[in-house]
Amino acid sequence: MAEVAPLPAALPLPDIANVAHAYELQAQASTMQAEASTILSQNAALLPNIPAVNEVNILQQILASINEINGRLNTTNGRLGTIEGRLTTMEGRLTTMEGRLTTMEGQLNNVRADVETVRADVQQVRQDLRYESECTIIRSHNIQQARNGPLIPLPHRPGCPAYQAGEFPANESALPGLPVAAANHLLAAYGLPTAGNIQEKRERLARFLGRQL
Fold first, then answer.
1. Most buried residue among 66, 67, 198, 210 by CB atoms closer than 10 A?
2. Residue 137 forms part of a structural domain
3. pLDDT at 98 over 70
4. Residue 19 has pLDDT above 70, yes or no
């Protein structure tokens, strides 16, 4: 009769405490996964609002700043151009005013020259009047003298050469025999013409002295 194999020994039973701990760990892991999913879902709406910082954005910002600076420079250049235009206009006006002032200065110089001329003429007229007044007084005295009465010499006209001492006739009787040189000197001293013969010169001088030949 064949022998019957012996039955295997019974398998050891798992420890109940270990099995419970494993289930507890699995439950905790599931809970943590669920909480993480909840947190992600709650904050998902905030993620698109965070700007992406990359090279493209930086370049765009730099270009925008450069364009803004260029715009300001263009505005400043425009204002400078306006100011330069105004300055050019003012320079033109100043040049015009300088030209007018130069013209006015020339006119003033002409007026001053005219005034000086008039002043000189007035001075000459005063001098002539003073001379004629002095001569008139002397002539009045000489006219009252007799033919042989002494004559007061008339002074020479200002600006004319003086006659020499002794050339003025002492009286009317000396006029007909007045030498040519003395007659010429006296006529020149009184600003009278020296043309003509000796008789014409003597008569011209006698009329000036208020006497007759």
1. 210
2. no
3. yes
4. no
Residues in the chain: 213
The 3 state secondary structure assigned to 65-117 is HHHHHHHHHHHHHHHHHHHHHHHHHHHHHHHHHHHHHHHHHHHHHHHHHHHHH
Q: Which amino acid belongs to residue 121?
A: D
Mean pLDDT of the chain: 84
- Rounded distance between C-alpha atoms, residue 91 and residue 81, angstroms: 15
For residue 155, being part of any structural domain is answered with: yes
Looking at the structure of the chain, the number of domains it has is 1
Q: Is the pLDDT of residue 49 over 80?
A: no
Look up the domain containing 192 and give its range.
Answer: 145-209
Q: Which of 183, 174, 182, 181 is nearest to 213 (CA)?
A: 174
In this predicted model, what pLDDT tens digit does every residue of 163-205 receive, in sequence order? 998 999 999 999 999 999 999 999 999 999 999 999 999 999 9
- Note whether residue 50 is domain-resident: no
